[in-house]
Design a protein that fits this description.
Blueprint lengths: L16 H14 L13 H14 L1 H10 L7 E11 L9 H4 L3 E3 L2 E10 L5 E8 L4 H8 L8 E3 L7 H10 L2 E3 L14 H4 L3 H10 L3 H4 E2 L4 H16 L1
Parallel strand pairs: 1-5, 1-7, 5-6
Antiparallel strand pairs: 1-3, 2-3, 3-4
Length: about 240
């Protein structure tokens, strides 16, 4: 882990990384405000600055991707999404709601977390969009992060010709239940599809972190970093 932490600091040495990272994880799990973090973790401003600056540099996401790819590409990949309510504190990010992955859906102002996982619930990649973005639209970008696989599971929301062609171009077989209005029903295995509940369990575990279950961050970069930290702590 140390090899992925920044070493280009100047001037006064950083406060102990272990203590600060523990404080950041505490805030994400408890959902408290940064200024309400226990003093045992050091100055509250240090916790927030470390979290926000490393999120902007991509430190948290790079650490997550390094761990997610350490074991090589999985044979089975699962794709799904989960909506997260955006708190009023999440308003006001630069560039407007569209640039900060906040949209309006039936549930109000929401952010949608799109994810890829393996059959053991371990996440592979995340993508944030507004809550109104369809799963099949986000899949076009998310599937670019799959280099190779034998089988990709998805629910009916991914049953489009474009998504199926994208999966087949990777060299994988799509196992997606066909929509009822399809004239030609594609091949689908209910037996293999039983493994798809792993990605639902992954989302449930991430939402044990209250700052993932509800979005309080204005910037999509910061919320994506919170999701990556929650995944790292939960599965590695």
């Amino acid at each position: 882990m140390l090899s992925y932490l920044p070493r280009d600091t100047r001037g006064k040495p950083r406060v102990d990384d272990r203590r600060v990272i523990s404080g950041i994880v505490h805030v994400l799990i408890s959902g408290c405000r940064w200024k309400d973090a226990p003093t045992i973790y050091g100055p509250r401003k240090t916790l927030y600055n470390r979290f926000q600056r490393w999120a902007a540099k991509g430190v948290w996401s790079n650490l997550f991707h390094a761990l997610a790819t350490a074991g090589g590409p999985p044979a089975e990949v699962l794709i799904d999404s989960s909506a997260v309510k955006a708190h009023r504190c999440a308003s006001g990010g630069k560039g407007g709601k569209r640039n900060q992955a906040i949209g309006r859906s039936r549930g109000g102002r929401t952010t949608k977390i799109h994810a890829l996982t393996d059959r053991n619930c371990r996440p592979i990649a995340f993508l944030l969009t507004g809550g109104q973005v369809a799963d099949c639209v986000a899949a076009d970008t998310l599937l670019d992060q799959v280099t190779t696989a034998d089988l990709i599971h998805g629910d009916k929301g991914y049953d489009t010709n474009a998504v199926r062609r994208k999966i087949e171009a990777i060299g994988a077989a799509p196992n997606i239940p066909p929509k009822i209005n399809r004239v030609w029903k594609n091949c689908f295995s209910p037996y293999l599809y039983r493994n798809r509940n792993a990605i639902e369990r992954m989302f449930n575990r991430l939402k044990d972190f209250r700052r993932v279950a509800t979005r309080y961050d204005r910037l999509a970069t910061n919320f994506h970093a919170a999701v990556c930290i929650a995944a790292t702590v939960s599965y590695w």
